[in-house]
Every structure is written in C-alpha cells, then in structure tokens.
Design goal:
By secondary structure, this protein is an all-alpha fold. The chain has one domain (3-119): de novo design (two linked rop proteins), CATH 1.20.1440.60. 84% of the residues lie in helices and 0% in strands.
Length: 121
C-alpha cells in the first residue's frame, strides 16, 4: 500500500472511529459528570479524524508535522477519557473500541516520530 492509499484508508478509519464514539456518547448515562466527560470525549475523538484529514492536505512537511502533533494529542486524550469512563465505573467501554483508540494513537505517534526523524536529517 502506498502513502496515498494508506492516507485514504486511515482517513476512513478515523472517521469510522469518530462515528463509533458518537454512538457511544448517545448511550452514556445522563448525569452531570458524564455530560462533562462525554463532551470532552466527543470533542477529542472527532478532532482526531478532522485533524488527520487536514494533515493530509498539508502543503509542507512542517504543516503536516504540526497537524499530526494535534492528532496525537487528541488521540491520547480520547484514550484517556475512555479509560476514565471505564475505571470510574460510569460506563464499560467495549474492548474493541478501546483497542481501536490505542491502535490509532500508536499509528499517529509512529508517523510523527518518523517524520520528525526525516525532518531532522
């Protein structure tokens, strides 16, 4: 798979992930603490997809690096909020969804690291 094909597949993957988080958000209990956590989760997860999409349209390596750094931050925040929901016993997050969140984080973290190494040469 070449770089362009990977980007298209990953754009679709992150969008699908965002949609899964939207579905999860709809199932959350309607308590005050969940409103706060749920909103943060929703913002972070949907930001992963939108900022990755923006990164793919970057005009330079520097611009791509800047956007991919945001994607890493938002993916990490998404994992955090999913962990909080589970560990606080508010909602048991599906293991497949948690796995996908961690895989997305790993992929974008590795991309950022590779790009940084390439830019520093």
């Amino acid at each position: 798979m070449n770089k362009t094909e990977f980007a298209e597949v990953f754009k679709n993957r992150t969008k699908k992930f965002s949609i899964e988080i939207i579905f999860l958000h709809r199932r959350l209990p309607k308590t005050d603490e969940v409103k706060i956590i749920g909103r943060q989760l929703l913002k972070a997860a949907t930001s992963v997809a939108s900022n990755y999409r923006a990164a793919c349209r970057a005009r330079s390596d520097n611009e791509f690096f800047s956007k991919i750094c945001i994607v890493v931050e938002e993916a990490d925040e998404t994992v955090f909020w999913l962990e909080v929901l589970t560990e606080s016993e508010i909602y048991k997050v599906d293991s497949k969804l948690m796995k996908e969140a961690n895989e997305i984080l790993s992929i974008v973290s590795a991309s950022r690291k590779t790009l940084k190494q390439r830019m520093n040469k």
